[in-house]
Amino acid sequence: MNKKIFVGAMLVCLIVCVAFPVSQAGAQKTVTVVDSVGNKIEVPYPVERVASLNPAALEVIRALGAKDRIVGIDQFTKWNPDFYPRIKDKPSIGMPMGMPPNYEKIIDLNPQVVISYADPMWYYPDLENKLKPAGIKVVRLDLYKPKSFEHDVKALGKMLGKDKEAKEFLDFTSSYVDKIEGRIKDIPAEERVKIYSEFFMPYVAYSRGSGVDHLIEMAGGVNVFSGGRGRLLKMPGYLPGKSGVYLMVNPEAIVEKNPQVMIKDYMGMADYMSMGKKPKTVGYTGRPDAGGMKQARDEMMNRPGFGGIDAVKNGNVHAFAFGELATSPRWPVALGYMAKWSYPDRFKDLDPEAFHKEWLKKWYGLEYKGIYVYP
Q1: Residues 196-237: pLDDT tens digits?
Q2: Scanning 222, 290, 323, 345, which has its CA 20 to 30 A from the CA of 112?
Q3: HSE toward the beta carbon, residue 305, CA cutoff 13 A
Q4: % of residues, the chain, pLDDT over 90
């Protein structure tokens, strides 16, 4: 009888010992992240399957060494195969903005997390409601605005289990930014260079709270329309309090402000309209063509009454390739150009292109090519 009891007890112990580790191993670990909107989202840890409607997020995911986790990409990324050679064949889930994403495709791909912009101008308000029934979490991160960049990168690193890589990436970017800010901090307010920066839409100024407004301030400049008057840009989903302010201004107001530096965002519509069937002309491309950027710059300089503006008289007018520097994770490169255009004597030794080359090679494994600024 005692022998039977002993054997029975051993069997019970064996069952418990085997079953307990299995139940523990089967428990899904989670982590809570706070996105750029302030939402607290509990996600699996580490996230192993991610789809993104934000091209900036895909850049940073690659920099953190997690490109193998990507299961779905936005259409703009699909049209940029040279820059994304390892993920260019991933399924497209929709445009970064402008039209609803392919919800059925997203659900079919079964990502654990979908990343979208936090900025209301670029995001889809129905994402959470559409994807919640499928158990897919939505994390909203901008990853291109200087003031929220550190937070966004850390949040992404946290959910991917890439905290160490996120810190290394941020240390790299901040070392360059700190160098620039350190050189302009002693410039008196009355001596700071006045800058006008225009969206890719004519006469739409980057104003208070926008990412470019922050860049101008960091470069030691004064955004002539940071507190200026104008009509608010009207676009679906655009909320000035959360997106930053984009002002529709008149030509006379720009002339009156008399900026010393003028910057124009250039969006190569022909590049996007070709839908990836032809090589891009600006940004990361093996067939760069400055023609469109030159045309955009010339148009700005030759506007009626602009001939008397200091920036035009001195030729200090430049074009940025939209979405490639100032409005991307590589905004520190744009900051370098803006500082050099504004204070050439203070930044004689600063080489934004060299820093850009180092960035592409170190974090993306890419050789430098293409055109990003003109001239």
Answers
A1: 999 999 999 999 888 999 999 999 999 999 976 666 566 555
A2: 323
A3: 9
A4: 77
Q: What is the DSSP letter of 134?
A: G
Cis peptide before 46 (omega within 30 of 0): yes
On whether the CB atoms of residues 194 and 261 are closer than 8 A, the answer is yes
Q: Shortest CA distance to 118 belongs to which of 245, 265, 267, 244? A: 244
Entry pTM: 0.89
> If one looks up domain 30-169 in CATH, what number appears?
3.40.50.1980
What is the amino acid identity at position 100? Answer: P
In this prediction, residue 97 carries a pLDDT of 75
- Collapse the DSSP code of 70 into the 3-class scheme (helix H, G, I; strand E, B; otherwise coil) and give the result: strand
Domain segments of the chain: what residues?
A: 30-169, 188-374
State the Cα–Cα distance between residues 316 and 303, nearest whole angstrom: 15
Alpha carbons 225 and 236: distance in angstroms, whole number: 23
pLDDT band for position 17 (50/70/90)? very low
Asked if residue 72 lies in contact with residue 93, where contact means CB atoms within 8 angstroms, the answer is: yes
> What CATH number was assigned to the domain covering residues 188-374?
3.40.50.1980
Helix axes 352-364 and 331-342, enclosed angle (nearest 10): 170
SS3 content of the chain, % helix, strand, coil (to 5): 45, 15, 40
**Other CB atoms within 10 Å distance of the CB of residue 201:** 13
Residue 50 phi, psi dihedral angles, 5° rounding: -130, 140
- Residue 194 CB coordination number (10 Å): 18
Q: 86-117, pLDDT tens digit by residue?
A: 999 999 999 887 788 999 999 999 999 999 99
Instruction: Report the pLDDT value the prediction gives residue 278, as an integer from 0 to 100.
Output: 81
DSSP three-state, residue 138: strand
